[in-house]
Design brief:
By secondary structure, the chain is mostly beta strands. It has strands at about 5, 10, 20-25, 35-40, 45-50, 55-60, 65-70, 75-80, 90-100, 100-105, 110. Strands 2, 4, 5, 6, 9, 10 and 11 form a 7-stranded mixed sheet that branches. Strands 1-3-8-7 form a 4-stranded antiparallel sheet, with no helix packed on it.
Length: about 110
């Protein structure tokens, strides 16, 4: 069983920055895919960014502002969020896929407000 623990959410003013972290544990196998999703109130969960060994993908709304990175030795994925906007407010979830099985973290709240 893979456990994902997120941290780094909080309240920030528009234009500010936050860095989310997601540490994975319990996997006997290499984690091929990790990503960040978010869900705003009344909206569907959407992919924000993901990372594999060969590529990163971002949703258009965060391109140029967010950066996903990964420390394979620590089984940790990060999301650096800069120039935050009110519309970035959501619960952010970490996701990992191991041997074809998907796992979710518990989510961390990000609130962008003045």
């Amino acid at each position: 069983q893979v456990q994902l623990v997120e941290s780094g959410g909080g309240l920030v003013q528009p234009g500010g920055s936050l860095r989310l972290s997601c540490a994975a544990s319990g996997s006997r196998f290499s984690i091929a895919y990790m990503g960040w999703y978010r869900q705003a109130p009344g909206k569907q969960r959407e992919l924000v960014a993901d990372i594999t060994s060969t590529a990163t993908i971002y949703v258009d709304s965060v391109k140029g502002r967010f950066t996903i990175s990964r420390d394979r030795a620590k089984n940790t994925v990060y999301l650096q969020m800069n120039s935050l906007k009110v519309e970035d407010t959501a619960v952010y979830y970490c996701y990992a896929r191991v041997s074809g099985i998907g796992y979710w973290g518990q989510g961390t709240q990000v609130t962008v407000s003045s």
